Amino acid sequence: MLNKVFPAVMLPVIAAMVVGMAQPAPAMTLRVCEDPNYLPYSNRAGEGFENKIAEAVAKDLGATLVYTWRSTRASGGWDQFIHDTLNAKKCDVVMDVPYASQQVLTTKPYYVSSYVFVFPRSKNYDIQSLDSQALRRLRIGYEADTPPEDGLKLRGIIFHAVPFDVGDTDGESPAVMLDAIQSGRIQVGITWEPAVGYFLKSGFPQMEVVPLPNSRSQGVPEQYIFPMSMGVRLDDKPLQALLNGVITKHAGQLTAILNQYGVKLVRPTGVPDY
């Protein structure tokens, strides 16, 4: 029988080792970069769909959720937001960016959505794409500095259209375009569906919503349908891998959150299953 007697001087060292081994691993903190006042995406009260997605991710990771707040619509826009928050290491993840964005390292997409035409259902306009002839006789509202603006320019129908700068105007609601349709200022709006889906569901149920297809009657295809991902710093592959695991494991839960906010998901031809 082996009976080893340790010198008394070793006992404090052994006790310290045992105590150290018994300590739980430090809790993870999920530091999320968010806009404090831009519903339906996010706000300080946690009422946006990005807030709910962040909560679901933090819960799965067993992490404490901590926000870094900065307006995405302040001076410098989105680029400055990323520079001042994510790249400055004040936070570690943004919850909603286009897949394969060059500014960040993106996860696999967790949803795909599109720009849409919005108009009163009672008007029954024949609008299926930017090539629809009805657009040439209607007052169009569009989001400035977006792909639909480029599409309108290509077709020479930008001149009678009305720009909206929701994405660059702090405090402005995406519902402003829906208000403009109801007031008659414009007859049809073109906007990003996740931005207005919540308002369409809760306050404007009488609107027709038609996705813009990734197609063109002549020339090369245009992109109006986008896979959306989470984004981390370009060198943070460990966090990217963790988030990919959550997306794979909880795809149904994330989709359910988006559905609650009226986000319409699309599965365009040619987009692989992620």
Features:
single chain; 8 helices; two-stranded parallel ribbon; alpha/beta; 12 strands; 274 residues; D-Maltodextrin-Binding Protein, domain 2
How does this model look, in words?
The protein is an alpha/beta fold. It has 2 domains: about 30-110 and about 230-260, Periplasmic binding protein-like II (D-Maltodextrin-Binding Protein, domain 2), CATH 3.40.190; about 110-210, D-Maltodextrin-Binding Protein, domain 2 (3-Layer(aba) Sandwich), CATH 3.40.190. Helix content is about 30%, strand content about 20%. Strands 5, 6, 7, 8, 9, 10, 11 and 12 form an 8-stranded mixed sheet that branches. A two-stranded parallel ribbon has the order 1-4. It has a two-stranded antiparallel ribbon with strand order 2-3. It is elongated.
